[in-house]
Amino acid sequence: MTWLNTWYLIRSAGIVAYLLISLSVLTGLYGQIRKKQKKKPGVYPFFHDSLGNWGLVITLLHITLLLFDKYQPFTIIEVLVPFASNYKSTAVAFGIIGFYFLAFTIFTTKYRAKMGIKVWRKLHMLTPLLYVFVTIHGILSGTDSEKLGIFLMYTTSLLIFVLLLLIRFKKPASVKSNLTVN
Amino acid sequence: MNKQKLANWVVSIGSTALVVSIASIFGNQVPAQVANPNKEPNDTNKQEPIGPSLVASNSNLNNGSNVSVPTNSDVPAKPEANQTSPTKSMAAPQTQAPVHKPVSSAPVAPPKSVPSTPSRAFTPTPSPAHVSEPKQVHKHTTTRAS
């Protein structure tokens, strides 16, 4: 049962957590683009929520396992306080901040009705920052970043993210023409 | 079953399966790396010339100046040191973790090579023990790279 080894589970949980979080962000952006184009949202919103929720669950697994690893042990302070870790403190700090960001995003989404949709939407617009944080954390602190499969995962995800952001925030043609006229 | 529940099931099962399968892939990569240090160093047909560094280290040993310093033929430890290239330094400590764990749990490899190496350590002429050691180093790096 080699997969039960803590170190392998930490790495795999980190990779899967990144995959889920990035897919959640990408499906969210894609859903927004469809909404902007006045198309039916389809199943994307459901997957967007589930991917985010399970991204948090797997991230918690990733963090918890770090406390039990014997080779590179982390204390509870090191996994919860940014820059407290001696091991790649900046890269780890990005991961910790990303984790708080993710937890905050999911928490606010659960209680969006109570806090008001407008406020929630403004807060939710910051989510691309979460993606940036976890991507930096994954690339800099991930020990498998140089493996081809993992490298392709980061680059593909980043390319799609940039592309979707450009489409999402691209101004409509009518607005553009108005701006040039004025 | 509504769409939200279906999405939850798909994502939960998929993510759990991914965590386990990726962990098992990492786990399966290790035995190949560990198996190499135990490989029999008796392949005399593919002898490689001894590098200047080895000769230098032998002379050091003869002088008794630094007997414990590992040479380029210290097979089990060296490949891992070689694997940490300057470009890979970011990933070094943890990348080695899965490799270290089995190796440290089985420090059998260094003693195995030691009995065959005394002649190498104290005589200037290459013994058959020299032969496969550089090759082993090479093999380590190749398996590591994969």
What is the element layout, followed by pairings?
The complex is a heterodimer of chains A (182) and B (146).
Chain A lengths: L5 H31 L7 H25 L7 H5 L8 H22 L1 H4 L1 H8 L2 H15 L6 H21 L4 H9 L1
Helix pairs in contact in A: 1-2, 1-7, 1-8, 2-4, 4-7
Chain B lengths: L2 H33 L16 H12 L14 H6 L8 H4 L1 H9 L3 H8 L1 H5 L5 H18 L1
Helix pairs in contact in B: 1-5
Q: How would you characterize this protein structure?
A:
The complex is a heterodimer of chains A (182) and B (146). Helices cover 77% and strands 0% of the residues of chain A. With 182 residues, chain A is mainly alpha-helical. Chain A is globular, with a radius of gyration of 18 Å. Chain B is an all-alpha fold. Chain B has 8 helices and no strands. Chain B is elongated. At the A-B interface, α1 and α2 of A face α1, α4 and α5 of B.
Properties at a glance:
heterodimer, A: mainly alpha, globular, B: mainly alpha, 65% helix, 0% strand, elongated
Structure summary:
The complex is a heterodimer of chains A (182) and B (146). With 182 residues, chain A is an all-alpha fold.
Number of strands of chain B: 0
Could you name the ranges of chain A where pLDDT drops below 50 across 5 or more consecutive residues? none
**Mean residue pLDDT of chain A:** 87
The run of helices and strands of chain B is HHHHHHHH
Coarse structural class of chain B? mainly alpha
By helix and strand content of chain A, what is the structural category? mainly alpha
